[in-house]
Specification:
alpha/beta; Rossmann fold; single chain; five-stranded parallel beta sheet; P-loop_NTPase; 14 helices; Zinc Finger, Delta Prime, domain 3; binds zinc ion
Length: 332
């Protein structure tokens, strides 16, 4: 059984490998562990193993067949997720799941139900789940994810095998994260690994969140400069107003990225090569160089540097956006 997607947890992997080789996978598991400990990763691997049709049973999941690939992409029609919205799971949801379980699988031999935050089921929801675990069709399998297995009724627990996920070591976290984020600076990845206390999901969230913020700031800088250079005052104002929803860190990155673009424009204006390789950034820097005087560009840099400094001092996003708009318009 290929469990390489899950970091650390050597004992759990041995347990699962031995059991699945001996008598195949169980139809019901509790995946218990803290947030970020890998419950969802393990659930994906188990779901893939259950619907895989590309390998002999002991080699499942193959992670290469169409079934496995659909599970990994989160689009397999026979793998159903409940509780993803963070709300408590209701008895009505469990009943709906029960009706669904009696409809035969679409394309796999099995149907898999992943229940996130299973501890949020109240006793009647849990009893409905118990009935399903006891009497459900043989092709249905259930993966109950929880950070607190003790909150599940003893009767439910006794119907499932429990897989307990543990925090991983620093070395395991670093190894996993360096493979997962090959393009990130190594120091940044190691620092996130050091902070996550063995709960890799936290580091993944931090690193991918930072990635999303960076690309939002880069795109925002292009928009801001485009509107400053070419757009009318209204469109600049509209954009400034939309920034009121950003947090201060993101605004700081946005202002920093915009300053970089303005500096490129200044270099281009002076006849130099600015080193921008991204065609969209180069295009907007060139337009700014053509349409704005050096003084305009310099005073915009000055304004944005002041705004960036202000993001450190608790200034509200609304206030900063208003300031940005007023200052940039007066420079035009
Ligand atoms: Zn497969």
């Amino acid at each position: 059984m290929d469990l390489s997607q899950l970091a650390g947890n050597a004992a759990l992997k041995r347990q699962l490998e031995a059991e699945s080789a001996r008598r195949g996978l169980s139809h019901a598991y509790i995946l218990s562990g803290s947030a970020g400990s890998g419950r969802r990763t393990l659930a994906r691997v188990l779901a893939a193993a259950l619907v895989c049709d590309g390998a002999e049973p002991e080699a499942r999941p193959c992670l290469a067949c169409s079934g496995c690939r659909k599970v990994l992409a989160g689009i397999h029609p026979d793998v159903n997720y409940t509780g993803t919205d963070g709300r408590d799971i209701t008895v009505a949801q469990v009943r709906a799941l029960r009706s669904d379980a009696y409809i035969r699988p679409n394309e796999a031999a099995r149907k898999v139900y992943v229940v996130i935050n299973a501890q949020t089921m109240n006793p009647s929801a849990q009893n409905a789940m118990l009935k399903l675990l006891e009497e459900g069709p043989a092709y249905a399998a259930f993966l109950l994810l929880t950070d607190n297995a003790a909150a599940l009724l003893q009767t439910v627990r006794s119907r499932c095998e429990t897989l307990s996920l543990s925090p991983v070591t620093l070395l395991e976290a670093e190894d996993y994260l360096l493979r997962r984020f090959p393009d990130k600076p190594e120091a940044e990845v190691r620092a996130a690994a050091g902070r996550c206390e063995g709960l890799i999901g936290r580091a993944v969230e931090e690193l991918s969140g930072a990635e999303a913020d960076e690309s939002r700031a880069r795109e925002g800088a292009i928009t801001l400069l485009e509107r400053f250079v070419g757009g009318d005052e209204l469109s600049l104002m509209e954009y400034a107003v939309s920034l009121e929803k950003w947090d201060r860190d993101s605004l700081s990155s946005l202002f920093g990225e915009t300053v970089l673009l303005l500096r490129s424009a200044l270099v281009l204006r002076a006849g130099g090569g600015c080193g921008e390789t991204d065609p969209q950034r180069l295009c907007v820097a060139r337009e700014a160089a053509d349409k704005c005087s050096a003084n305009m560009l310099l005073s915009a840099v000055d304004t944005l540097e002041k705004l960036r400094a202000a993001t450190l001092y608790n200034a509200g996003a609304g206030h900063l956006a208003g300031w940005l708009c007023a200052a940039l318009m007066s420079e035009k």
